[in-house]
Amino acid sequence: MAKNKPRTTRSTKGKVANNYRHPESESLMRPDVGTQAQFKKKLPPKKYRYDDSLSPSLEWDGQNPARERGEALIREILDAKAIEEAKAAASKLKAMSKPFLNWAGKAERLSFEVPTLPLFVHERLSTKAILETLKGHRRDKQIDMFDLFGDPQHPIYEQVLRAYEHKDKWVNRMILGDSLVVMNSLLQYEGLGGQVQMIYVDPPYGVKFGSNFQPFVRKRDVDHGDDDDMTREPEMVQAYRDTWQLGLHSYLSYMRDRLLICRELLAPGGSIFVQISDENLHHIRELMDEVFGKGNFIALIAFKKTGFASDDELSTTHDFLVWFAKSKERMKFQPVFGARELTPEELGFYEYIELPNGDRRLLNREEKALGSQIRNNGRPFARNPMISPGWQDSLGFEVEFEGRRFRPPLNRHWATTEDGIERLRRANRLAIKGNTLRYVRYFDDFPFQPLGTVWNDTGVGGFVGDERLYVVQTDTRVVQRCLLMTTEPGDLVLDPTCGSGTTAYCAEQWGRRWITIDCSRVPLALARQRLLTATYPWYKLKEDARGPVGGLEYQGRQNQKGEEVGGIVPHIKLEDIAKNEPSKEEILVDHPEVDNKITRITGPFYSRSDYTNAYGLGDRWHRRLGNVS
Ligand SMILES: C[S@@+](CC[C@H](N)C(=O)[O-])C[C@H]1O[C@@H](n2cnc3c(N)ncnc32)[C@H](O)[C@@H]1O
């Protein structure tokens, strides 16, 4: 039987419960907790360097290095043996004259060091294994149970000897620890550099430094600076003490260090999204310009947040996503389309209607006020211009239509040839507007639109939002769109700010592999629960045996009214009709085919790995905790 074909775990509704696996992906074998003492493969701390050409006024040695550096670059240009060498030095020289963002702590550090620590697996979880255990079906089949947990079942001696050398099957992961240390470990121990297709970062926004975390599972309101709301966890104390000591200055260093490591992890076609509010948006954009390069900026997205802050002046209704590619030229991207609403305003454009008997007429004011409902009466259409700017040449011919003669105005020509216009005529796609001949564009030629940079339909809670589990939870629609635009099934997604696990949840839903990190046990506990109890549609796989990486299945389908309801929809355009070519098709990536007989549950995952107690680091942190409590 193919690996992803449903095994018979029946839910109460008689459906089969199953999860996706990723049989073609591997990761290096990781050691289990308990083997720390025997673990001998220690690695030295890793030093990361910033691009020093970005801070011309660095003055850590008391001289004027900017001038020295400028002179050195001029020498490089003069001595260059090849034009490329000279160009590279000249562009560095040019960069020195640009304005740059500076803060306390930046000038002193051209590099930073991160301890390189192994990650030990604490807990393996699998919804399917839990269901099987509850039903008692497989008590006698221990081997299968291990498999359901994604447990490779390596004996201890093998783990100690072969950890981080031998390949294992892929298992998604939730990791406890500081994102900097964990991401460094993923790079240095696990070789994940250049492997992550998308990173979603929802960091503390860098305001109210005392209330950046939710300290208790059941308490969602956190007061800024209130002692009762102070965390008791060692990792969090570290975060409070060291990370935010200098307020915004510390925050900028905190973000820059992590962004730099994110860049190392990103695949050549990868993307990173940073979620932020308007207070520090400008700083984050500048930091990302520095780390990823201005040329790799893709978009700034404003999305509606839950509730709004009512200031003295305008109320703040949106948060932001700053989107950069590792490399704009190589970025993986597929558009996400949403249904286009036919508003009364849009009907000012689609002002004509074709009735079921074929008659065509202008819509009246009452009909326009109906908005989308007008589609029950017929097919609204616009009369689009059919001319293009430029010399007429052979495209300035005369066209006769309904007893009138038309030519393009001077310095304009028809958008298609005489044959093309004849085809449009036969397809009943010509109409007159005033003194001009136009092309009939039905609203239903393509009733969808690609996402823009303002998303107004988001916001956790309320009637349409997700249930709110965590004080700073992101709406799944926000993460889902980023994920669908920039990744394919089977790709690896990372969120170093797990919180309640929204990114892991979305990645699991769409068949992507995931790793998520948080320095607090509180959000990790919420995320763990959320994933264990989640159900998703079973999107049909093109190749069951390969898992999601083989692709999801999409089909074109219409409902009784003739509306497109499948994942492949025609996109009818003038040029295709005019050239007698079949219309193009678009894929609605969020509408794959669903098998309703299967309830999908979260696949096995390591619900906690961490580096505490590796080389005594955890102990040191625990002692620090003693100092504050
Ligand atoms: C704004 S929340 C993320 C919320 C998430 N988007 C969601 O939907 O639930 C930020 C999270 O980052 C975590 N965090 C902050 N600093 C961290 C660090 N240095 N390393 C790891 N996690 C960190 C916090 O514990 C917090 O849970």
Can you walk me through this structure?
By secondary structure, the protein is of the alpha/beta class. The protein is 26% helix and 24% strand. The protein is built from 16 helices and 30 strands. A 10-stranded mixed sheet has the order 5-30-7-25-24-8-9-11-10-23, sandwiched between helices. Strands 14-13-15-21-20 form a 5-stranded antiparallel sheet. A hairpin with a 4-residue loop joins strand 10 (297-310) and strand 11. Helix 1 (65-79) runs antiparallel to helix 2 and helix 6 (179-188) packs parallel to helix 8 (248-265). The radius of gyration is 29 Å and the shape is globular. The chain starts with 15 loop residues before the first strand and ends with a helix. Mean pLDDT is 84; it is low at 1-8, 58-62, 211-220, 222-227 and 616-629. The protein binds S-adenosylmethionine. S-adenosylmethionine binds at residues 178-179, 202, 204, 213, 239, 470, 472-474, 496-497, 499-500, 502, 517-520, 523. S-adenosylmethionine (SAM) binds next to strand 25.
For the sheet with most strands, the description reads:
10 strands, mixed
Identify the strand order in the major beta sheet. 5-30-7-25-24-8-9-11-10-23
Taking the alpha carbons of the first and last residues, their distance comes to 56 Å
Multimerization status = single chain
Strand percentage lies at 15-25%
Which residues sit in consecutive blocks of at least 5 with pLDDT less than 50? 1-8, 58-62, 211-220, 222-227, 616-629
Number of E strands = 30
Number of helical segments with 4 or more residues = 16
Give average pLDDT, whole number: 84
